[in-house]
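Lab notebook, bench 4. Still working through the backlog of constructs that have no structural model yet. Next entry is a single chain of 449 residues. Request: give me the structure tokens for it.
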Amino acid sequence: MSLVTKGIGLAKKAKHRFQDQIRARTPVYLSPVRRIEQVATEERICAMTFDDGPCRLPASPDHFRGKPLTLVLAETLERYGAKGTFDVVGDTSRNYPDRAGKHGSASWGGVSYDHYPDFRKDDQGGVVHCPELVTRLLAGGHEITSHTYSHILFGWKPLVYGRRKYLSGLDPVVQDLKKLHGAMEKGWGYPIRLSRPPHYVDGIKGGFSSYDAYALMGYQYMAASFDGAGWLPLASYEAEVEATWKPMEKILLENPDFFRGQIIFQKDGYNMARRSPIADGLGKQLQLLTDHGYKVVTVSELLDRSPFRDALPHSDVGAAARRLLGHGWCVAFQDNTLRPDTVLTRGALAMLAYGCETIRQRIRLVRSGKAPFRDMAPRHPYAAAAVLADETGALKAENGNFRPDAPVTAEELRRFLEVRLGRSGGDLPRQITHGQFFLLADALMGAGR
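Model written out:
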């Protein structure tokens, strides 16, 4: 393994540790856009995602008689009765002027921008240039998701990609997403439901994030919980192929249920050494999963079977939350958990009821810089929902304060239910948890049907 490769690997590990520390210290809020990494399920099902395609170039090294890499992956999946989720780009051919970075480094495909499938070979990758591969994927029952049209970073990423150009704000990000969305609708009548940001960069200039962009698009955030490897160059191609399946084998021997509900990350393209070990490793991965009784489904099917990370779909709370979600309620936290034992606060209740309706109001608040209440900054995740709750009378502010962190009282909840659902809910506890609220609201809504 080269020093460059070791450096990239260490940087990646350091980044993950840093992100885990940040997440541990950062409050989590309810969100209409949920980061989907893994779902709770008792079934041995999982999903596989493939970034950066479609790719018309052959596998490297080519052991498949010149077949396009994307076709090799699709045919391998289908031999095992598996369905993949292909996280595609539109066209990177306009990401010039630029120059290629050092072979084997993170900038191998471009210093200022990404170029797929390789530098100056952009016409061999992406939806615009490979429509026949998109048609083939859809014919095979695979899912298409958005990795953006041009694969330009949403914002600055100082670690590893500090020299990369990035989009200048929320509007350009949404325009880029709409461009790919429109291409899929126009060409195939296909509605995209999920998206993954380039290099997982979430921050957008102006105080926004990928979650705001996805809320405007009606997308959910597709992440992953397991790295299928293949993107990092190793000492040899054989070592890279082994890295795609050997860790999986070890994990399955220790815990056959480990991959239940997980999303596995892969690449439909070349790694930093311009090789594609997933072409030879995918079959080994699928054989391991098949031997342990797994079925590989699309991410959308995974979500249809079980929407949340911490609640089984057949549990009372999980089923109630799922029905409320179907009615447009914002029931889950940004990390896709329900946290049913969490005490319900005024801010969370406002977000539950109105959060899916307030993205444009949130954008106006952030851009204005004006606090809607004395105790809520314009960028507070619940600010826009609190404004709407106050305007409708469902939850009133007092003396200019909304008190978003205060637990909801029985009296406040009764008034809220009367305004929102036209029913008081009968005897109510002094404090109520999220799980209790799901069951109560679901019952009241069911009684009205």
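Notes after review: DSSP finds 15 helices and eleven strands in the chain. The longest helix spans residues 3-25. Flag for follow-up if needed.
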